[in-house]
Amino acid sequence: MSKNMKDMPIGFFDSGLGGLSVMKKAIEDMPEEEFIYLGDSANAPYGIKENIEIKRLTLKGIEFLIDKGVKAIVVACNTATSVAIEDLRMKYKGIPVIGIEPALKPAVELKRDGKIIIMATNATLKEKKFEKLMGKYAHDNVIVPLPCPGLVEYIENGILEGKEIDYFLRTLLKEHISSKIGAIVLGCTHYPFVKKAISNIVGDEVAIVDGSKGTSRELKRKLMEMDLVSNRISRGNIEIFNTLGKEKIDLSFSLINVK
Ligand code: DGL
């Protein structure tokens, strides 16, 4: 592999700000890599759209990253992964295309007493990919898929704490807190931004897991396998784009606010 290719950036895509929670982990794990992020906030939320539209928007977003010369793609959106990952892998055969899925396996492996709640978008929960994932673990565990329409909008608007989001989350989780919860899976990359607010409602003893760790690990593994790890010894650049235009969003907050 030429040195040039190795030092090209890694492209991250999400329907909005959520994927930054995944990119943050990848930056921690691979600080010498260069990163380019595209958030499609102008079209968020994806989770309530038809598949055909989610696919169209995702392919368009990824094309933007390809035009920027990325050496790998991370679809840092559970919804876009569920709907478009196969098409993307067919289209971009030469480079790693990494997706994300609800971190049910790590949640099951915690072996906590109580049910496992999977919070995700409607689109993610109704896809075959999710059905397959459930099929692997549902026989030995009590798993409750919980669609959360409306939650992404709060996060896109920067509402991460306070009365309004507390009320929303409490209503969403109301019927589930009466029986024991072992773990909550954040199956949408936006939700780690409100992890603290969720924890305040369900209690600190409930484990809250997301897919950023596994996705970053898979990215690293793929880069090594395809001999694409950067030779850089200093920190790589990070560039963040959003379809709303830079002036509309304080993008720096998003990397800082993921706990
Ligand atoms: N961040 C996306 C995910 O991981 C979905 C948000 C949306 O509905 O746009 O599923």
From TrEMBL:
It catalyses: L-glutamate = D-glutamate. Pathway: Cell wall biogenesis; peptidoglycan biosynthesis. The keyword Cell wall biogenesis/degradation applies. Substrate binds at residues 14-15, 46-47, 78-79, 189-190. It holds the Pfam family Asp_Glu_race. It comes from the Bacteria. Its EC number is 5.1.1.3. It is an enzyme of class 5 (isomerase). Keywords: Cell shape, Cell wall biogenesis/degradation, Isomerase, Peptidoglycan synthesis. PROSITE patterns: ASP_GLU_RACEMASE_1 (PS00923), ASP_GLU_RACEMASE_2 (PS00924). Transmembrane segments: none annotated. GO terms for biological process: cell wall organization; peptidoglycan biosynthetic process; regulation of cell shape. The keyword Cell membrane does not apply. GO terms for molecular function: glutamate racemase activity. Signal peptide: none annotated. Provides the (R)-glutamate required for cell wall biosynthesis. PANTHER family: GLUTAMATE RACEMASE. HAMAP family: Glu_racemase (MF_00258). Belongs to the aspartate/glutamate racemases family. This is Glutamate racemase.
